[in-house]
């Protein structure tokens, strides 16, 4: 009896120890990962209100002065408006064309459809990528769309279009065919069916695409930087690049304040879309 | 109000599979018409071709005096109820019912009023604002019917209208559907794989196999006088007795028992011809005393059917099934006589077709 208890005790102690150490390790790991993501966010929250912002995080000497300067900087606030124009323009473009294209590709059987989709997806990043910038620039010159926001919208839109079609096609595929056939029986034309049945049922997908498209455009620097010249047309992502002190150092006061303003619309939109359209699907198909 | 006429209708799928193979049939004005067959027999394809959801490969389809072969589904003045009902999940019951009217560009107030009227007729009061997902299966079916009625079609097409309901509700819905069809008087074609459903509902039944018509007739005709062995074994809740037989001395020898020749086959068979003898278990009579022109055998299996009992009786090498009343049930192993009425038995030739009218 005694010897058995002794063995049980001696084996239980290291097991408990191992459990404790494991818990410690896990907690530490999670803390590190959390810090990695939280620290930049903390900087973004504190630095704009600091009289002397630096790249470290510290309790700010509270001031609104940075924002006052920012509002007086020519073109800074207008650039946020430009970003909104580009983002919404691209969003509408890809939503309309993406819904039409994905619906068609989901319903019409053409040989090699999937290969076509995968190829497009693979090549899509090239359009907005560095490698194709010269041809893109030349194309826009020929089309007379240099220094035009429409040109930027078209380029950004075509860059994300394959991914949009790819994602939306999945949503369209999941809509039962009998819904459309039922609408067809009563005389609805394809566009009508897409509007009455396809769009409402693919709404979570369309909402996802809308958010994603805005985020893609919002943060894009290269395309508007190359295609736009007039300062009054440039978006925020490009304008932020011009915030330097006379000494050639990054003007952290302006950059941090502007970054905060720059990130608010995207965060707000995310919450809006998520609460309004979140991922829900209730079906009327009984099977 | 219109009849449907198909003329040598062919629907061929890519790859050469024929869903419908040269079908000519007429559905009369106001008729409740069933397309019956096992799965894969082409009945749904035929329905979808009539609806215009499948393109016709060759042949014509007429609805009333219009040739609709090349018309879009929306121009055929038909309404279809799908097996899954296909109610739009994001629309209320009222919007679902009035959707056909929306397509016809009717004003919103008018079409909601119309939906209300149709809904009342289908006992959907109080449910008009709900979504399809909040309805029971039976209610969903009535909404689907309502949508079909609201479109004021000349023809109703139902694809397996009862198969998504549970067994108890199915019987209720069946009666409801039959009454509705009689009240509306609209030509209705429905597809089913359930022979009992077809017998109960239809004015006439077309039985299909592999894209071709096997028999077309009233429920009574297909039940009593199946055109071939396929129909004989497919229709009826208890399978028909089908036994190999030989014609001998103006009688027929079945499993070692000599029976009188079926009335319909008289004068149409030759001595020594190999045939298949058939009789429905419901049309056989059991007796415990010796009877002439009857099978003699022992009871091997007895299956309770409620008010009646299905007995399997071993006669020679074969089994003969007979339905008897619950009071008549003999104990297992009892020897009994099973008598066949000549006018209730049939002969089929070696191709499986019925001999005689």
List keywords for this structure.
heterodimer, A: 287 residues, mainly alpha, MetI-like fold, 2 domains, B: alpha+beta, Rossmann fold, OB fold (Dihydrolipoamide Acetyltransferase, E2P), 34% strand
Uncertain stretches of 5 or more adjacent residues of chain B:
none
In the CATH hierarchy, the architecture of the largest domain in chain A is Orthogonal Bundle
> How many domains make up the 3D coordinates of chain A?
2
Helix content of chain A: over 70%
* Gross morphology of chain B: elongated
- Please estimate the helix content of chain B: 10-25%
What is the first-to-last residue Cα distance of chain A? 62 Å
| Computed CA radius of gyration of chain B, to the nearest angstrom | 24 Å
Radius of gyration of chain A: 26 Å
Q: How many β-strands of chain A, per DSSP?
A: 0
Q: How many domain regions of chain B?
A: 2
Helices and strands of chain B, in order, run as: EEEHEEEHHHEHEHEEHHEEEEEEEEEE
CATH-assigned homologous superfamily of the largest domain in chain A: MetI-like
The overall pLDDT average of chain B reads 91
Structural class of chain A: mainly alpha
Number of helices of chain A: 12
In short:
Chain A is mainly α. Chain A is built from 12 helices and no strands.
Structure write-up:
- The complex is a heterodimer of chains A (287) and B (357).
- Chain A has 287 residues and is mainly alpha-helical.
- Chain A has two domains: 2-63, no CATH class; 75-284, MetI-like (MetI-like fold, Orthogonal Bundle).
- Chain A has helices at residues 2-46, 65-72, 76-107, 113-127, 133-143, 149-173, 177-185, 190-201, 203-218, 222-227, 236-239, 252-277.
- The termini of chain A are far apart.
- With 357 residues, chain B is α+β, with helices and mostly antiparallel strands.
- Chain B has eight helices and 20 strands.
- Chain B has helices at residues 43-51, 93-103, 108-121, 137-150, 167-184, 195-201, 219-224, 229-234, and strands spanning 4-12, 18-27, 32-36, 58-63, 66-67, 78-81, 155-159, 187-192, 204-209, 212-217, 241-248, 251-254, 257-260, 274-279, 284-287, 294-304, 308-315, 318-325, 335-340, 345-348.
- In chain B, the strands form four sheets. A six-stranded mixed beta sheet of chain B has the order 6-7-8-3-9-10, with helices on both faces.
- In chain B, helix 3 (108-121) packs across helix 4.
- The longest helix of chain B is centred in the middle third of the chain and has 18 residues, at 167-184.
- The model of chain B has no long low-confidence stretch (mean pLDDT 91).
- At the A-B interface, helix 7 and helix 8 of A face strand 6, helix 2 and helix 4 of B.
